[in-house]
Specification:
4 strands, mainly alpha, four-stranded antiparallel sheet, about 525 residues
Amino acid sequence: MENRMQEGAGRPLYSSAPQTDFPPRPAVPVRPSFTAAPVELWAALGSYLIGFLYMQLVLWVSLDTPRGWLVVFVLLFCAGTEWFCRAMGRRAVPAESWFWLACLGLVALSIGLWGHNGRTVGGWDLLALHGLAVYWTLSRTGALAEGGTGPMIWLDLLRGFFSYPFGGFFLRIRTIACRVRRTRPGKRLPGVLIGLVAAVPLLLVAYELLAAVDGHFAALMRLTVDWSWLNGELVLRLLLSLPVGAWLYGLAASCLRNKQDPAICAEVRGAAEQLRVLPYSTICILLAALNGLYLIFFVLQGSYLLGGFFGHLPDGFTAAEYAVSGFEEVCRLMLLNMAVLGGCAKFSRTPLRRSRVLQALGAALCGFSLLFVAVAGAKLALYIGRFGLTPRRVLAAWFILVLGVWALIALFTLLRPIRAIRLAVWAAAAAFALLCLSHPDGWIVRGNISLYAHGVVDSLDADVIGQCQGWDNRTELAQPLLDCGWMLGRTDEELVDMLGYMGHSGSNTMCWPLDDGRQLTVTLDPSIGLSTRAEIR
């Protein structure tokens, strides 16, 4: 009885019982705790100032704000980003980043010199300024997917505008919180700076609310300190600058923290190679058919298309009808040719450079593209010669120039391997930066006045002159308009449309005070209602 096993005692399993060995659970990767270097704290605190300056000097600009302050902001932004890179150990400056920094500086300088309200390039210069700033940051921090501009530029732009800044939107708060927890008891400066950054906007908002609650308190504070600079608009700018600064810091910090994975580009290239499915015969038929169609078109319509080169108009066409007809379609054909050539290069099993036939067909397509560009340029030149310059015609000329450069780059790509996309992007960016810096508004006004003085155009468009010259400083045109003879034989409405209404010094006399202290006086003949005398004295 003593040897009998008690109920509930453990028994060994029988040999017939199934033996189950459960595999060990995979180890859950432990996410490393967030850490931030001291330099990241200083950059995070500085981003509050950069965000406020952006709202004050770039986005929320009043009419009386000097335009040069935008250049100051760009300098501060670039200097801060450069300091952040060097402090984080990125001392080597990529060579390509100098190009983007130069383009950014040229566009910023053009806005600082000429302004961006009512200009030829419209708001495109301000949009380009933001794009260049983001792309320069990616290039300087070494965050470009391929280490430079290339076919993965679409991925770089997505990262630069969305993935990095919005993914690191709360990175500034995390950095400040991390450094506050790790601040030693003896070091008070970081804590003081953090307290000041948090206290200033809080006190401003609280003061606005208290002044609204008690008018006596507001009057007492005005007697003590001049609070005229504090208003609801300033408080709103401060509040809006918080997400702006977080976005900018998230962009720079994410670029420096994230390491580029070359496997992503390798996978994309491998997937692109899998797209080479079209046989040699298919590519030949496509290119030969398109070239044949273009050849037939130029043979049949050669006299019509090439008339612009010699200043001759086809029968039944006016200059306006000839220049406008087919201009946009020619530009679209050029883009279609570039798309077809790029598609054949990516989908063809046989690379175009390895086949003499494909190489010749591709070169012929590039030649037709250049011919289309020349036709479009001749049409535009004929139109400008008959009707003068306008902002849209200047932008069209810039676009034609860029298309021609792209066609040449495509032609060189067929002859030898070059970084075609990088060169194409560089050409477009450099051409736009130089266009902005050249002050197109000024030479549009001077060009139209010169064309009128030489009898090329019959009239001056007051809307174009006002848009380019600016509606507030049109009196600067008084002397050029007087020299070219435009002032005589004009109605009072035409004079007001061109120079703006300033006042009458008499029943038949109109006057405009000039910036140099002199005065433009125009005398009207009441019998015919036209100006008969104009002088500056």
